[in-house]
Design brief:
This protein has 231 residues and is an alpha/beta fold. 35% of the residues lie in helices and 27% in strands. Strands 6-7-8-3-9-10 form a 6-stranded mixed beta sheet, sandwiched between helices. Strands 2-1-4-5 form a 4-stranded antiparallel beta sheet, with helices on one face.
Length: 231
């Protein structure tokens, strides 16, 4: 579904990613794991067209998307929940969701399905996004991405700073989307969260993906994590 073929990217003259190659299959959760500054968020931005490639290619369902403008990427069926959420704070919950629906012209059935996953948002449809709690804002960011009816979902540290009940609610939705056949690329710092939901884990170090392992192997042998993260 998603293929990164030896991509190189950075900011100005500063190269961050070096020959990163990854794949995400339908109905799979691939977690990117690495220290701060390793290149995880940069990888997400490169996929979404927010950062031009120096070389290499990004393919979605076999088609190259590296040269597409960033505003075209979501319309292909790629949802993105960025770090920091990036909501339209002055708009209501309903208006933020409507923006998601407009991208692929999804209708009322899609909205009802999404609100079924996040019932708390249904109670706050006319509330401004910037007045929601941190956990509710994260739910809204996820819900907006799901309004695209994505075949691929990118999520950058969705549980950062949240209380355990919110983390569990988000985890359940991520697993449900995987079970529905959505491919998921997840950046997560919490090792316990990664091991609870990942199918595979790709380790990134100094802008390179140095290893990709089945999560079952990591659950069985934590020394493999220590080898890459030193934790």
């Amino acid at each position: 579904m998603l293929e990164l073929d030896a991509i190189n990217a950075g900011y100005g003259r500063a190269q961050i990613l070096r020959d990163v190659s990854l794949t995400v299959a339908p109905g799979e959760i691939l977690c990117l794991l690495g220290r701060n500054g390793a290149g995880k968020t940069t990888t997400m931005k490169a996929i979404m067209g927010l950062l031009p490639l120096m070389s290499g290619a990004v393919r979605f369902k076999g088609e190259p998307i590296s040269d597409l403008p960033a505003h075209r990427i979501p319309g292909l069926g790629i949802g993105y929940v960025p770090q920091g959420r990036r909501l339209f704070g002055e708009l209501t919950v309903a208006q933020n969701l409507e923006i998601g629906l407009m991208v692929r012209r999804a209708g009322r059935d899609t909205l009802e399905d999404v609100l079924g996953l996040f019932p708390r948002l249904r109670e706050r449809m006319q509330q401004r996004a910037d007045t929601l709690s941190g956990g509710e804002q994260q739910m809204l960011a996820m819900a907006r991405a799901l309004c695209l009816e994505p075949e691929l979902l990118l999520m950058d540290e969705p549980t950062e700073g949240l209380q355990p009940s919110m983390i569990e609610a988000i985890r359940q939705v991520v697993v449900l989307m995987r079970d529905r056949g959505t491919g998921i690329l997840l950046v997560e710092q919490r090792v316990d969260a990664v091991l609870s939901i990942a199918d595979r884990v790709a380790f990134i170090e100094n802008g390179r993906n140095v290893d990709t392992l089945d999560a079952s192997a990591l659950r069985a042998d934590h020394s493999l994590i220590e080898r890459h993260l030193g934790v």
